[in-house]
Design a protein that fits this description.
The chain is mainly α and about 550 residues long.
Length: about 550
């Protein structure tokens, strides 16, 4: 199924590329409006048969794409609701935009040699196709976002190392250490900065991307202050002044040339402001090295300070980019979890209702059909448990919430127990109580997630706090806040307490403070409850210790 879905995306990309190539390569579309072929006396369809045929193929391919979108939606509707919703949205957008009809209109315009109008229609269709492609690719946005965060965190680590290194070298220069020795270390630092710059350029500027909504791109645009570095790389063995002028001119020319897209290629991405900061810092380092070699220590120290300033600005920009990307990641994860838990809640309520109906059946009236029905309920409960397991994987991958993860894990274990009891046709009060707890937990999770999302929205509009405390590392903001974590811990403890009360009522002597039971099922349940209490105690201790740190 994943292969088919990828083929759909590929087909969309193919349509966009073909249409773009048709638009750019066609000599008819290159002519000026005054030279329109609409007045030509030649047979229109024969005048440019290749363009006409290509446009016909594109129209047929897009019609096939719409059919595949609808077919895939029906196939995924029950198995993968999230993907089905995306496919349905893509199909509806295609229908509402009448892209298919517009493509057919373009065929007619080319056939009638009305090329100027055909060109305008082509541009409109191309924008619609790009929009549809972006929608289909949004299914992979979470994965790309996670990769972006990891990549920018590595940049930040290296920038922080560079900043510490540069401060240390400046301290050595100010402390009177041998200038030639410091100059050699400064040269190594400049080389390290150059390697980082090359890495950022390769990853962020030279890789083609269709993700116009990239958080990194947005954050860079918002944080760029327009101070672009213009680094030079003087060649040795030339006069210093001529060398600097020539290098600067060559680099400027080379940069402008690299920024110009070659014919038939995609436009290059703009220079990354972070890289520009690093390049500027590298040039300051080279100047500092040169002045140290010339025994101009004070001038070298000033260059080092300027280099530190550039690196510090790069660090600030990276931190803001990571904050915005993590904010988007949290929004996506919370929304995805809320949607998943809402659907699980609806299904769990139906399982409980069916269990209660079966429990009302008299024992002597229970037949083979009764076992069949409980078996179906067990299968449905296992399916809900599988959804809970996927939510667990999502939370474990995020790794920022301990109590949240534990809450879902406890619920998952209850689901497994319910499925096992239903499989054995046990539909008594014990099973129904477990189902009630699962429903309560799901209700709590849905409301908690909705509240967290509302709070996050409010924080965006709220002014920054004067004393916010120790902020988390950039890109590592928690999925839910500390207060939400504590509420979840309290909820877990409350459930353990209520379950313990229910178990105590099943003892042989409920009023006995030191109650005992010979029921193996109850004994096993109490052991599981004990293990849950121990685990909750350990998790609480870990959270408290983490808060102290």
């Amino acid at each position: 199924m994943l292969r088919v879905f990828r083929m759909t995306i590929f087909l969309t990309i193919f349509v966009v590329l073909c249409l773009s190539a048709c638009h750019l390569a066609s000599p008819a579309f290159a002519q000026s409006p005054n030279e329109s072929s609409e007045t030509s006396s030649d047979p229109p369809a024969l005048q440019r048969p290749e363009i006409f045929k290509r446009q016909q193929r594109l129209a047929r391919q897009y019609e096939l794409l719409e059919e595949k979108l609808f077919t895939l939606y029906g196939f995924e509707r029950d198995k993968n609701p999230t993907r089905a919703k995306l496919l349905e949205k893509a199909f509806q957008r295609s229908q509402s935009s009448a892209t298919n009809d517009q493509l057919k209109d373009v065929v007619g315009l080319i056939e009638s040699a009305k090329l100027s109008r055909a060109e305008q229609q082509q541009e409109e269709v191309l924008e619609k196709l790009k929009d549809l492609l972006a929608l289909l690719q949004s299914a992979d946005r979470s994965k790309r976002l996670k990769d972006e965060i990891e990549r920018y965190q590595e940049y930040l680590k290296e920038v922080e190392k560079l900043l510490r290194l540069q401060k240390g070298l400046r301290g050595q220069a100010e402390g009177g250490m041998d200038a030639q020795r410091v100059a050699k270390s400064e040269s190594q630092a400049a080389e390290r900065a150059g390697n980082l710059s090359d890495q950022i350029k390769a990853n962020e500027e030279e890789v083609e991307t269709d993700d116009k909504d990239s958080s990194a791109a947005k954050a860079i645009d918002e944080n760029s202050d327009g101070e672009n570095a213009d680094p030079s790389d003087p060649s040795e063995g030339e006069d210093a002044g001529a060398k600097e002028g020539k290098s600067e001119s060559e680099n400027e020319s080379a940069r402008k040339k690299s920024d110009q897209p070659s014919e038939g290629s995609s436009p290059a991405l703009p220079a990354n402001p972070i890289r520009q900061r690093i390049d500027a810092a590298q040039e300051r380092m080279k100047e500092a090295q040169k002045k140290l070699q010339e025994a101009r220590r004070d001038d070298a120290i000033e260059e080092m300070k300027l280099s530190e300033k550039e690196i510090a600005q790069a660090k600030k920009q990276l931190e803001e980019i990571l904050r915005q990307m993590r904010e988007e990641e949290v929004e996506r994860t919370l929304a995805k979890l809320e949607e998943r838990f809402r659907k699980m809640l609806e299904r769990e309520i139906k399982v409980k209702q069916a269990t209660e109906q079966l429990a009302a059946t008299e024992t002597e009236q229970r037949s083979t059909e009764f076992d069949v029905q409980t078996g179906k309920l067990s299968t449905e409960q296992n399916s809900i448990g599988a959804d809970a397991s996927r939510a667990l994987l999502l939370l474990a991958e995020d790794g920022s919430s301990v109590a949240f993860l534990q809450t879902v894990d406890e619920m998952h274990q209850d689901m497994i127990q319910i499925a096992a009891r239903l499989s054995s046709a046990k539909v008594g009060n014990f099973t129904i109580d477990l189902e009630t707890e699962v429903i309560d937990t799901l209700n709590y999770l849905v409301s908690s997630l909705a509240e967290t999302q509302r709070e996050n929205e409010e924080k965006k509009d709220a002014p920054p706090q004067e004393n916010p405390g120790t902020p988390p590392q950039p890109g590592e903001e928690p999925l839910v806040g500390k207060i939400a974590e504590l509420k979840m811990l309290r909820s877990l403890q409350d459930r353990i307490y209520r379950r313990h009360q229910r178990y105590s009522k099943q003892l042989q002597a409920p009023d006995d403070l030191v109650g005992t039971s010979e029921d193996p099922e109850l004994v096993a349940a109490l052991k599981r409850l004990t293990a849950k209490q121990k685990k909750l105690t350990r998790i609480t201790q870990e959270i408290v210790q983490g808060s102290k740190q």
